[in-house]
Design brief:
The chain has helices spanning 2-8, 16-31, 34-45, 135-151, 172-175, and strands spanning 10-14, 51-56, 63-67, 72-76, 97-103, 115-120, 131-132, 155-162, 165-171. It is an alpha+beta fold. The longest helix is centred in the last third of the chain and has 17 residues, at 135-151.
């Protein structure tokens, strides 16, 4: 469950100067001819170098900003009570997230379980079992959670891999 918390409490921050550079990249991609557009779209996806990562502690609300220029993680501590979900999507619980699951028959020494399910969505899944050692139960749990999240229309994509082989791959883009 830690991965879900980290993902939901993480964001990207643009400075105003970089925001306008980013918007220029988007405008260029929209207005370009077909051949150049693919290159420009890749540049947009690669624009993370002009953002700073920001994390919010879900317990105390403190913000940590990754200053890429200095390589330091800078702390901002609010003086008053703060919303501890500041970095949640503007769509709230309707944000469309991701579901990934991995099973390995032969696990590494550092691994505790053969199967793990990683739901990254904006709804509470605290009571969901995410680690498994029975392959069939793991698959049932994955498909059940997949259908549940898909039915709520809060899933962007889902992948199940068993021993490195993709056995289920779903994307809402491919369904349209």
């Amino acid at each position: 469950m830690i991965l879900q918390i980290i993902y939901l409490n993480k964001g990207h921050v643009f400075s105003d100067q970089d925001w306008f550079d980013f918007l220029d990249l988007v405008s260029e991609a929209i207005e370009s001819n077909e051949e150049d557009r693919k290159k420009l779209v890749n540049e947009i996806y690669g624009a993370s170098h002009i953002t700073k990562l920001i994390y919010q502690c879900p317990k105390c609300g403190q913000l940590y900003i990754d200053d890429q220029q200095s390589g330091e993680l800078c702390l901002f501590s609010p003086d008053s009570k703060v919303n501890k979900r500041l970095l949640e999507s503007a769509y709230g619980s309707a944000w469309k997230g991701f579901l990934s699951a991995y099973w390995k028959d032969e696990i590494e020494e550092w691994q505790e379980h053969k199967g793990m399910i990683f739901p990254i969505v904006n709804i509470n899944l605290e009571n969901e079992k995410l680690c498994w050692d029975d392959r069939e139960e793991f698959k049932k749990a994955y498909y059940s959670l997949f259908e549940n999240l898909k039915g709520k229309n809060i899933l962007r994509s889902s992948t199940l891999k068993i021993n490195g082989k993709k056995v289920h791959d779903w994307s809402e883009d491919e369904q349209a």
